[in-house]
Amino acid sequence: MQPAPEQSPHHAYPDHWEADVVLRDGGTARIRPITTDDAERLVSFYEHVSDESKYYRFFAPYPRLSDRDVHRFTHHDYVDRVGLAVTVGGEFIATVRYDRIDERGRPASAPADEAEVAFLVQDAHQGRGVASALLEHIAAVARERGIRRFAAEVLPANTKMIKVFRDAGYTQQRSFEDGSVHLTLDLEPTAESLAVQRGREHRAEARSVQRLLAPGSVAVIGVGRTPRGVGRTVLRNLLGAGFTGRTYAVNHAFAEDRDTVDGVPAHRSIGEIGEPVDLAVVAVPADRVPEAVEDCGEHGVQGLVVLSAGYAEWGAEGRERQRELVRQARSYGMRIIGPNAFGLINNAETVRLNASLAPEPPAPGRIGLFTQSGAIGIALLSGLYRRGAGLSTFISAGNRADISGNDFLQYWYEDPNTDVALLYLESIGNPRKFTRLARRTAAVKPVVVVKGARHSGSTPPGHAVPVSRIPDATVSALMRQAGVIRVDTVTEMVDAGLLLADQPLPAGPRVAILGNSESLGLLTYDACLAEGLRPRPPLDLTTAATPQDFRDALSRALADEGCDSVIVTAIPWVGEDGEAEAGDGEVLAAALHTAAAAGPAKPVAVVHVEIGGLAEALSAATSTVTQPGTGTRPPGPGAAPTTTPAAAPEPAAAPAGPDRGDDSAPGTGPGRIPAYPAAERAVRALAEAVRYAQWRRQAALPGKVPEFLDDTIDGPGAAGLIDTFLGPDPDPRGRSLTHAEARELLGRYGITVRPTLPAPDPDAAVAAAARLGYPVALKTTAPHLRHRADLGGVRLDLADEDALRRAYGELTDLLGKPVELQPVVQAMAPRGVDTVVRATIDPAAGAVLSFGLAGAPSELLGDTAHRLVPATDRDAAELIRSIRAAPVLFGWRGAAPVDTASLEELLLRVSRLVDDHPEVVSVALEPVVVATQGLTVLGASVRLSPPPARTDLGPRRLPNY
Length: 961
Hints:
Elements: E1 19-22, E2 28-33, H1 39-47, H2 51-58, H3 67-74, E3 81-88, E4 91-101, E5 114-121, H4 130-144, E6 149-154, H5 159-166, E7 172-177, E8 180-186, H6 191-213, E9 217-221, H7 230-241, E10 246-250, E11 260-261, E12 264-267, E13 279-282, H8 289-298, E14 303-306, H9 316-331, E15 335-337, E16 343-346, E17 353-356, E18 363-371, H10 374-386, E19 390-396, H11 405-414, E20 420-425, H12 431-442, E21 447-451, H13 472-481, E22 485-487, H14 490-502, E23 510-515, H15 518-530, E24 534-535, E25 539-540, H16 547-559, E26 565-570, E27 573-574, E28 580-581, H17 585-598, E29 604-608, H18 614-619, E30 675-676, H19 679-699, H20 715-726, E31 735-736, H21 739-747, E32 756-758, H22 762-772, E33 776-780, E34 794-798, H23 801-815, H24 818-821, E35 823-827, E36 833-842, E37 846-853, H25 856-859, E38 864-868, H26 873-881, H27 900-916, E39 920-930, E40 935-937, E41 940-944
Parallel strand pairs: 5-6, 9-10, 9-13, 10-12, 13-14, 14-15, 18-19, 18-20, 20-21, 21-22, 23-24, 23-25, 23-26, 26-29, 29-30
Antiparallel strand pairs: 1-2, 2-3, 3-4, 4-5, 6-8, 7-8, 11-12, 16-17, 16-19, 27-28, 31-41, 32-35, 33-34, 33-35, 36-37, 36-39, 37-38, 39-40, 39-41
């Protein structure tokens, strides 16, 4: 191949190709285009490649690169010739290059759509998933430049490279020619390639979190010489938790003769330690952090917890300092928790890590907790500590510059120590990814979320997060579609987390209530009804009830097949002298534990009023509780998958959660029973568990898109219309289609919109009615009067010409001139229920499908249901049944039920349209009149825009700052 010319000035450096990626081992690397300034880096890189790898690349011994080679490999036009490099610490560790070729394999330019591709990875970095990540990125670049296929020649002995191509998931062909394997890859993404990409992303991000949570050694940078200060506090907490690895204290101001601090080896730098350090906790002033990060990066530290403040929370200068911190850390392959973080905790028995400022570390347990706020993290830790709850892991991410809640969802999905994930989030940087990960995790264990800044639109300092245009109620509905338990307060999050971590999931909404207070039982009964549960009449044991009476009543309730869960209410006993007696809470707790252990696996919660020692005794595990791996009761509400991240710690010796099945063996203890000081809190937590359990059962049999839609959809025809409507140079702001254009486009997807004809004067209205056939409707289409029958802008059931002319005159006399009203005539539709169907593209949430009744129910009362696109048949069915006014569709007050099957089909067609064509950014069908048989779409509006970028479908990359 001839040397390439100098890079064309018409193709500037494509900085949007730069990306930070997480590799298979959890470390990070940077992918970027190769430039003419990289000659020395390329030569140095090649010198560190083994002779065998060079032979595999060039099919012959090739000990060094010639000047001509260096020129060719560093000069690109970024269109027909492209080279990408993977860097760590600023140095190359891998390269990939493509050259566009024609059908004979000669250098070519567009419209040729095939390119020859070749990789080279330093031997020291092979096996880290570098080539797989490079293939994703070079394929995306090639598609952007109009290349549809890659061709590669690989020696048969180069099995690693052959495996990279084979496992990528692209459609490919292989042949053996002239002693080499010839591979051709179709670069169009497939379901398999997307699944492969996401699987690799999951394993890499989970591993990156696991490296932070289970280090073999920790260095605290900034340990003070006096007993006070942040660094010294973290060091004491590490020692107090009994960290199983090695610990070091680092401060550049330590005297040369100082050997230890609090019994820990003391050093003036990471480099001085002389042994590998996995995790560094940075607690120095912000202006000294870069020096500490460089010291860590140069000596192989894998991750950082930056407690230091003075970053994006301090304004523009701090934001730039934060961006530089992320860039610097990632350049060395390190990930960051923070800055301005509170720290992290891992209670696994094999780790026992408390690298935080937590004054009251929680006991080991089955709850994982992530919070963006240090203050909220302190409050949550304190609340869990007071209620005797245990944590598996805790992370307070501070400014969340790098590690996010998505990363911990990746980790918790397979973590055997975590049964419930609790997250306090103030923003969701990648909503589509969050929804995908939350749905997958919720299928095996509960995910409980509190979303802060719901109305202020606040984002973590220094972040550029897409701003959602949809209301918070819609966000909540979409989270619930993904199986997320969305609660409003951190108190509710703890309440729900305690019940989900320690009790089985309920089989249904039927609740038994028993206790020694009729009034407290009635309050509980009312709260159950308010939450949509089905409570049985409370059983009043009277104030004379003994712990044995509680035990017997609970045993009978649990054995009752008509009961799915039990709420026990308890007040202090009243003595003969009328004085309240706190009683022995431990005795009552023991009685309840015994009954729960002996009965079927059903959730039990306790509502109590000032009974001393009861809550503490209930939160303590009994001696009969089965430990993980030693009995028949598996932990948690959703058993985690059997595979775990590499080198994951063994489960901590914590009380096991109860069996989530119906066949738990009697006699195996139940673990903790959650106690609540108010009936409403207990019932709300139980209601969330009921709804989540129902979602889990439904998620086990996912919905599908009916095949019959394929026979009535013309996708290519719709794509052609969209290209025509947008034109060769589309306005980036988009454009609204005319009524005729919208009808034509929707018709390609089997959606028929009843035609309307303009009526600029009475004669035109009469002529239109003659064409359409009586009876007709006369409607204004002026924006301020559209769909406003209450303002007199719609006249219905006009049976003849006289009625039409009379209505036309009344309309113009009342509302204005025809040129202002823009009246139209439309044939009457069969009587039915007026509904509205919409689909919009939200910058944060993606494509959202919405449904409600037209008019006041949806516009005034906000009675609208939402689902993410693509919607399945189950989503469509749930959509129309989840609005509060749904009974109107199903025969309310003796009316005939409408054709909901046709309505569900319409919803699926709209969903399919916006999913197939991202240029369709808005669809509104209003009104859709649903009759007893069939439906009629009377109005439609469609807006098109150049398709927005889909970050969730591109190659793996970390957010840029």
